[in-house]
Amino acid sequence: MSSNGRKRAAPASGRSAKARKPRKPVSEDEDSNDSSLSDQLPPEPPRTPSPMVDEPMVKLPEELLRSFYKTPGRLMIAGMVSWDLVAKRENNPTKRSHPNLFTFHKFTDRRYRLIVSGCSAGHSILISDDGKAYTFGRNNCGQLGFGDTITRNEPQLVPGLMDHNIIHAAVGRNHSLFVTDTGAVYACGDNKSGQCGLGSTAPQVLKPTRVRYNGAPIVKVGCGAEFSMILDCNGALHSFGLPEYGQLGHNTDGKYFVTSTKLSYHFETVPKHVALFFEKSKEGHVSPVRDVDIVDFSCGNNHTVAIDSKKRAFSWGFGGFGRLGHAEQKDESVPRLIKYFDSQARGVRSVHCGATYSLAVNENGEQVAIDSKKRAFSWGFGGFGRLGHAEQKDESVPRLIKYFDSQARGVRSVHCGATYSLAVNENGEQAHVHTNKHTCTQTSTRAHKQAHVHTNKHTCAQTSTRAHKQAHVHTNKHTCT
Hints:
Layout: H1 62-66, E1 73-79, E2 101-116, E3 123-128, E4 133-137, E5 152-157, E6 166-171, E7 175-180, E8 185-190, E9 204-210, E10 218-223, E11 227-232, E12 237-241, E13 255-257, E14 263-265, E15 268-273, E16 278-280, E17 286-288, E18 294-299, E19 303-308, E20 313-317, E21 332-337, E22 348-353, E23 358-362, E24 377-380, E25 395-400, E26 411-416, E27 420-425, E28 453-454
Parallel strand pairs: 22-28
Antiparallel strand pairs: 1-2, 1-27, 2-3, 3-4, 4-5, 6-7, 7-8, 8-9, 10-11, 11-12, 12-15, 13-14, 16-17, 18-19, 19-20, 20-21, 22-23, 24-25, 26-27
């Protein structure tokens, strides 16, 4: 659906000048996992989506697929594991179904090659060595994909994806995306803003359903709180869901007035190509940036940062707290070049978004959370034991996690979630440490060409062995048809 040419409804009467201004949601920049906007809006009238072609049967190039097949490892967890309370403002200790874990514990005996979570989410996706998808955590909108809304305390196999080889995944506040080895994308969970990309705003999608997209195969997906991004193998970005702050990159925030006092949004319910990129000079002159092939991106709750094949960085969406990097707090509804990195010496290698900030690793340096001896460090807000130091004390400087301080327990990589942490030890290639307000980071060896992390109010990072050529393949070097 096109979002151009929208007009606001005229005021119903002269009294409209005294009408209260619609209140902006606040949960995007606070410690809340509650849906702030789409629950309050009237549903859009039903639309007839275009017919879908059959699911692609041809697999992605083998070289590309191998980059997703990481050496599996065992899952470990720390922090809050009462999933119905994770990342919510109301956090009554008496309602906890399980005690907080102040040190890392082995979660299951199964081995996983990929683990995905996010700080606005209370659920996680695990991909086993044979490409099967397991999910666990909060399931209030069906985001786990089991056809119901029952919380799962342990990882369980997603029935609707048993016949697919899953190579990548992403989670939003209450929705999930899965990518198969043919480049198809499946979605489930909250869809009030169209963030599942099915051509409608049906409130919930309880089982994984193929996203209504007919373009080039998809190699990466990302989720904001209530929007989604997908990247095809030719370097083109497509977005759908809530456009409130311009985070979809379509030169609109989608706002319109239902009445003189009621605000609503034109949701993008199917993937739409992000076609325009621009730069702005110090004098305010605007000019388009051409030949942009995206190779990596990361989504915050309401903003996105992406880098192209020329190592240029672009950002758009909610500009509060300066998270877009443009020396101002203005929202951007079209991807705008971050001028700081616009030189060969400052080329961007990877980008990472939190809820209220962004992080970029340039060609001259690395952010480190796991050192050369595979020791893990954590710092920041220590509530619920998420830092893994056997206490809830905040840490203002990096502190060694003693649990992993041995050769037998060396850490390959970490990832940060809402109020809990996950990690895979030396026996595995992919791991995650999930936290809320503490900072983690991502590093890579020289042979590791691309990596990325999705975060909320912290920075996450991942390492790889020399044999691991690419953590997440988002490059235009693989041209698909």
